[in-house]
Specification:
182 residues; alpha+beta; Nuclear Transport Factor 2, Chain: A; 7-stranded mixed beta sheet; 5 helices
Protein backbone atom coordinates (compact mmCIF):
# COMPACT_ATOMS: atom_id res chain seq x y z
CA UNK A 1 0.00 0.00 0.00
CA UNK A 2 2.89 2.34 0.86
CA UNK A 3 4.49 1.58 -2.51
CA UNK A 4 1.26 2.36 -4.37
CA UNK A 5 0.79 5.62 -2.47
CA UNK A 6 4.39 6.68 -3.21
CA UNK A 7 3.96 5.81 -6.90
CA UNK A 8 0.76 7.88 -7.14
CA UNK A 9 2.34 10.79 -5.26
CA UNK A 10 5.51 10.78 -7.38
CA UNK A 11 3.45 10.49 -10.58
CA UNK A 12 1.26 13.40 -9.44
CA UNK A 13 4.31 15.56 -8.70
CA UNK A 14 5.85 14.63 -12.04
CA UNK A 15 2.69 15.53 -13.95
CA UNK A 16 2.33 18.79 -12.06
CA UNK A 17 5.95 19.71 -12.78
CA UNK A 18 5.54 18.89 -16.47
CA UNK A 19 2.24 20.72 -16.84
CA UNK A 20 2.57 23.12 -19.75
CA UNK A 21 0.00 25.63 -18.49
CA UNK A 22 -0.25 28.46 -21.07
CA UNK A 23 -1.47 30.92 -18.41
CA UNK A 24 1.72 30.48 -16.41
CA UNK A 25 3.88 31.04 -19.52
CA UNK A 26 2.16 34.27 -20.63
CA UNK A 27 4.19 36.54 -18.36
CA UNK A 28 7.44 34.88 -19.44
CA UNK A 29 6.52 35.12 -23.13
CA UNK A 30 5.66 38.80 -22.79
CA UNK A 31 9.06 39.53 -21.28
CA UNK A 32 11.17 37.38 -23.60
CA UNK A 33 9.34 37.74 -26.91
CA UNK A 34 11.01 40.21 -29.27
CA UNK A 35 8.89 43.26 -29.98
CA UNK A 36 7.13 42.98 -33.30
CA UNK A 37 7.66 45.88 -35.72
CA UNK A 38 4.26 47.42 -36.46
CA UNK A 39 3.80 49.44 -39.62
CA UNK A 40 1.36 52.27 -38.82
CA UNK A 41 -0.42 53.90 -41.78
CA UNK A 42 -0.49 57.22 -39.88
CA UNK A 43 1.55 58.55 -36.98
CA UNK A 44 0.53 61.22 -34.48
CA UNK A 45 1.95 64.68 -35.17
CA UNK A 46 3.72 65.33 -31.90
CA UNK A 47 4.63 61.97 -30.41
CA UNK A 48 5.20 58.27 -30.92
CA UNK A 49 2.18 55.93 -31.10
CA UNK A 50 3.10 54.43 -27.72
CA UNK A 51 3.35 57.82 -25.98
CA UNK A 52 0.60 57.20 -23.42
CA UNK A 53 0.38 55.36 -20.12
CA UNK A 54 -2.55 54.85 -17.76
CA UNK A 55 -3.16 58.11 -15.92
CA UNK A 56 -4.38 59.01 -12.46
CA UNK A 57 -7.96 57.86 -11.92
CA UNK A 58 -8.49 60.95 -9.74
CA UNK A 59 -8.54 62.92 -13.00
CA UNK A 60 -11.31 60.68 -14.34
CA UNK A 61 -13.23 61.15 -11.08
CA UNK A 62 -12.82 64.94 -11.39
CA UNK A 63 -14.20 64.94 -14.96
CA UNK A 64 -17.06 62.59 -14.04
CA UNK A 65 -18.02 64.69 -11.02
CA UNK A 66 -18.20 67.78 -13.23
CA UNK A 67 -20.39 65.98 -15.76
CA UNK A 68 -22.63 64.57 -13.01
CA UNK A 69 -23.12 68.07 -11.58
CA UNK A 70 -24.14 69.33 -15.03
CA UNK A 71 -26.55 66.39 -15.41
CA UNK A 72 -28.31 67.42 -12.19
CA UNK A 73 -28.43 71.12 -13.12
CA UNK A 74 -25.73 72.12 -10.61
CA UNK A 75 -23.92 74.65 -12.79
CA UNK A 76 -21.56 75.84 -10.03
CA UNK A 77 -20.64 72.24 -9.22
CA UNK A 78 -20.03 71.46 -12.88
CA UNK A 79 -17.73 74.47 -13.21
CA UNK A 80 -15.82 73.91 -9.95
CA UNK A 81 -13.04 71.80 -11.54
CA UNK A 82 -12.63 74.17 -14.50
CA UNK A 83 -9.67 76.55 -14.73
CA UNK A 84 -10.38 80.29 -14.97
CA UNK A 85 -10.27 79.94 -18.76
CA UNK A 86 -10.94 76.83 -20.82
CA UNK A 87 -10.37 76.02 -24.47
CA UNK A 88 -13.64 74.45 -25.66
CA UNK A 89 -14.09 72.82 -29.05
CA UNK A 90 -17.41 71.51 -30.35
CA UNK A 91 -19.52 71.96 -33.52
CA UNK A 92 -18.38 75.16 -35.24
CA UNK A 93 -16.70 76.43 -32.05
CA UNK A 94 -13.02 76.30 -31.18
CA UNK A 95 -12.08 79.03 -28.73
CA UNK A 96 -11.08 79.98 -25.21
CA UNK A 97 -13.89 80.83 -22.77
CA UNK A 98 -13.70 82.39 -19.32
CA UNK A 99 -15.39 80.50 -16.52
CA UNK A 100 -17.95 83.34 -16.33
CA UNK A 101 -18.78 82.90 -20.03
CA UNK A 102 -19.23 79.16 -19.51
CA UNK A 103 -21.49 79.86 -16.52
CA UNK A 104 -23.67 82.12 -18.71
CA UNK A 105 -23.80 79.51 -21.51
CA UNK A 106 -24.70 76.66 -19.13
CA UNK A 107 -27.35 78.79 -17.41
CA UNK A 108 -28.88 79.72 -20.77
CA UNK A 109 -28.92 76.06 -21.89
CA UNK A 110 -30.71 75.02 -18.70
CA UNK A 111 -33.46 77.68 -19.15
CA UNK A 112 -35.13 75.43 -21.76
CA UNK A 113 -34.05 72.08 -20.31
CA UNK A 114 -36.26 69.96 -18.07
CA UNK A 115 -33.72 67.18 -17.57
CA UNK A 116 -30.45 65.66 -18.69
CA UNK A 117 -29.55 62.01 -18.33
CA UNK A 118 -26.05 60.66 -18.88
CA UNK A 119 -25.53 57.01 -19.79
CA UNK A 120 -21.79 56.42 -19.35
CA UNK A 121 -20.20 53.93 -21.73
CA UNK A 122 -16.57 54.20 -20.63
CA UNK A 123 -13.77 56.53 -19.58
CA UNK A 124 -10.00 56.47 -19.56
CA UNK A 125 -7.34 58.60 -17.91
CA UNK A 126 -3.95 58.80 -19.63
CA UNK A 127 -0.65 60.61 -19.12
CA UNK A 128 2.13 61.13 -21.64
CA UNK A 129 5.35 59.26 -20.96
CA UNK A 130 7.15 62.58 -20.39
CA UNK A 131 4.45 63.42 -17.76
CA UNK A 132 3.61 66.74 -19.47
CA UNK A 133 0.10 65.96 -20.74
CA UNK A 134 -2.79 64.43 -18.78
CA UNK A 135 -6.10 63.69 -20.47
CA UNK A 136 -9.37 62.00 -19.61
CA UNK A 137 -11.66 60.67 -22.33
CA UNK A 138 -15.35 60.08 -21.63
CA UNK A 139 -17.65 58.09 -23.94
CA UNK A 140 -21.34 58.55 -23.14
CA UNK A 141 -24.89 59.07 -24.35
CA UNK A 142 -26.63 62.29 -23.31
CA UNK A 143 -30.43 62.29 -23.28
CA UNK A 144 -31.98 65.74 -22.95
CA UNK A 145 -35.64 66.55 -22.39
CA UNK A 146 -36.71 70.14 -23.00
CA UNK A 147 -39.44 71.94 -21.07
CA UNK A 148 -41.96 71.05 -23.82
CA UNK A 149 -41.27 67.34 -23.30
CA UNK A 150 -39.23 66.84 -26.49
CA UNK A 151 -36.52 64.22 -25.97
CA UNK A 152 -33.25 64.28 -27.90
CA UNK A 153 -30.13 62.20 -27.50
CA UNK A 154 -26.56 62.37 -28.73
CA UNK A 155 -23.49 60.20 -28.51
CA UNK A 156 -20.60 62.18 -27.01
CA UNK A 157 -16.84 61.74 -26.72
CA UNK A 158 -15.14 64.31 -24.49
CA UNK A 159 -11.37 64.66 -24.41
CA UNK A 160 -10.55 66.68 -21.31
CA UNK A 161 -7.09 68.04 -20.55
CA UNK A 162 -6.23 68.29 -16.85
CA UNK A 163 -3.50 70.67 -15.69
CA UNK A 164 -2.71 71.19 -12.00
CA UNK A 165 -5.99 69.52 -11.03
CA UNK A 166 -8.11 71.77 -13.27
CA UNK A 167 -9.88 71.26 -16.60
CA UNK A 168 -8.17 73.49 -19.18
CA UNK A 169 -9.35 71.95 -22.47
CA UNK A 170 -12.69 70.37 -23.37
CA UNK A 171 -12.67 68.87 -26.86
CA UNK A 172 -16.17 67.54 -27.48
CA UNK A 173 -17.29 65.40 -30.39
CA UNK A 174 -20.93 64.41 -30.73
CA UNK A 175 -23.24 62.53 -33.06
CA UNK A 176 -27.01 62.76 -33.14
CA UNK A 177 -28.89 59.50 -33.25
CA UNK A 178 -31.16 58.91 -36.25
CA UNK A 179 -34.86 59.49 -35.75
CA UNK A 180 -36.58 56.11 -35.28
CA UNK A 181 -38.72 55.06 -38.25
CA UNK A 182 -42.41 54.61 -37.51
Amino acid sequence: MKKMFMTVAVTGLFLTACNNNPASNEATDAVTAPEEKIDFAYLPMNHAPDNWERGDLKNAALALKSLKAYETGDIEGSLAPFADSVWWSFDYVDQKFSKDSLRAMFTEAWKNTASVKIVMNDYESVISKDKKDEWVTLWYKQITTDKNGKVDSISVVDDIKIENGKITVLDEKSRKFPVPKK
